[in-house]
Amino acid sequence: MRCGNLVAVHDARCWNCGRWQPALWGYYPALRRLGLDLGFVPLVVTVCGLLYLVSLILSFALGFDRAGPGGFLQVLAPDVQVLFLFGATGSVPVFEYGRWWTVLSSAWLHGGLVHIVFNMLWVHILAPTVARAYGPGRLIIIYTVAAVMGGTATTLVSQFLPALPGPLQGATLSIGASGAVFGLLGAIVHFGRSAGVSAAGQQAWTLAAILFVFGLLMPGVDNWGHLGGFVGGYAAGRFLDPRRPERGYHLLLGLFLLGLSAVTVAASLLHGLLIGVR
């Protein structure tokens, strides 16, 4: 088990850490074959990849003009109307169309080949570290909270602080898992501080700072989404406390949040079709 002590498959409670159903009703050995993250990383990569491909194919099929800042970030970029349909967030979807749930659905969408490759690469690198420190259930919670915080931050800044200079502006339309990625960095920073693993925390701080500065220098980067995601991940990591063992309800909550993410994408599609893509 994660606390380091062996339990019987059908034990109701771990005698060492007190965790209820430590073997997950006998399914834990099978789930462990999926890895420390219980298959979360392949799930994220697969779902994001499929949504990107579908949005790209639909963009070409409908013949929409793909708009953006240009450059390598816009290589194979889906149309903004299609991204809106699938659940992009920002001040326009949230405040003009009332699509408040898109602060979550937007984290599963991407605006170009380079965009999705870089984000999935960072998920692949960082998520196993967070799973090792917090457990797979709390990894999903941290990832989701950071995604929502990133989407919320950029939406509010765009709506209420529109006069900020270019790189400090919020997004009228925002997509991508980068807010959640920054949330994983924030969780690692807290883990390094709370568990006394200063090297891990310092590396995460340095990497977050480099990526944030890079975002300030690149056009079309949602810097408030990054900042909001980092704060959300740090706060979630602090609340979940990696010094304590993960509980069964953390995994159940994580599974619920994955289901909720699917619901928000479906709700975006249904709502978008009802109002018409324009």
Record field, number of beta strands: 0
Roughly how many Å is the radius of gyration? 19 Å
| Arithmetic mean of pLDDT | 88
Oligomeric organization of the protein chains: single chain
The CATH topology annotation reads as Rhomboid-like fold
Number of domains: 1
Number of helices: 11
Question: Which spans have pLDDT < 50 for at least 5 consecutive residues?
Answer: 7-11
Provide the fold topology.
Blueprint: H1 28-32, H2 40-62, H3 80-86, H4 91-96, H5 102-105, H6 113-134, H7 136-160, H8 178-194, H9 198-217, H10 223-240, H11 248-275
Helix pairs in contact: 2-3, 2-6, 6-7, 6-8, 7-8, 7-10, 7-11, 8-9, 8-10, 9-10
Structure description:
The protein is an all-alpha fold and 278 residues long. The chain has a single domain, classed as Rhomboid-like (Rhomboid-like fold), CATH 1.20.1540.10. The protein is built from 11 helices and no strands. It has helices at residues 28-32, 40-62, 80-86, 91-96, 102-105, 113-134, 136-160, 178-194, 198-217, 223-240, 248-275. α6 (113-134) packs across α7 (136-160) and α8 (178-194) runs antiparallel to α9 (198-217). Mean pLDDT is 88; it is low at 7-11.
